[in-house]
Structures are given as structure tokens and as C-alpha cells.
Amino acid sequence: MAGKLRITLHKSTVSxxxxxxxxxxxxxLRRIGQAVxxxxxxxxRGMIRAVSHLxxxxxxxxxxxxxxxxxxxxTSRAASATSRAASSKAASSKAASASAASRKQDxxxxx
Length: 111
Description:
Blueprint (H helix, E strand, L loop, with lengths): L3 E6 L8 H9 L8 E5 L2 H9 L4 E6 L1 H49 L1
Antiparallel strand pairs: 1-2, 1-3
């Protein structure tokens, strides 16, 4: 049990017991789809077993855990920055086209 465990939250904690929600928080999980890595200890395995209906746990090697953590963190930051930029650009272009259409309608009414 010297390796690491990757724990992923797959289901919502809504309508679960207070103890289950506390266990999920103790594991460091907050969102569906979020994955965390913990040392493979009996305590961690017990927490996973207690909320096995909400999470999955898989063993990962130490080197794979380090590589995936750095890759996923940088990838997720870049993806969120890209999506924010794209959504703000789309919103501004939509607003510009709406105001242009409004001006055109005003000109047609005035003529």
C-alpha cells in the first residue's frame, strides 16, 4: 500500500447523509468529475469504501501521479482561459450585431 490512489467524484452529494458529505469533503472533493490523489492508506481506503456509491478509486504509480497532476492542472487552466476568451468574444460580437440591427431598424422607421 505504498502507492497513491486517484479518487474521482461521479455523483452528487445532494440527498446523501451528512456523514457521506463529510467524507467527500474530507477527501478533498467538491465538484462532480473532480479527481484528487491521496496516499494509499487503510484510512483512505475506508473513506472510499464508505462513499463507494459516489466515487471511484484507482491505484496510480507515484511517477504517473506526478505527471498527470501537472499536466491536468496546466491543461485545465488553459482550457478555462480559452473558453472564457471565446465566450466574451462571442458575447461582444453578438451585442455589436444586435446594436447594428437596431440602428438599421431605426433608420428604416425614420425614412
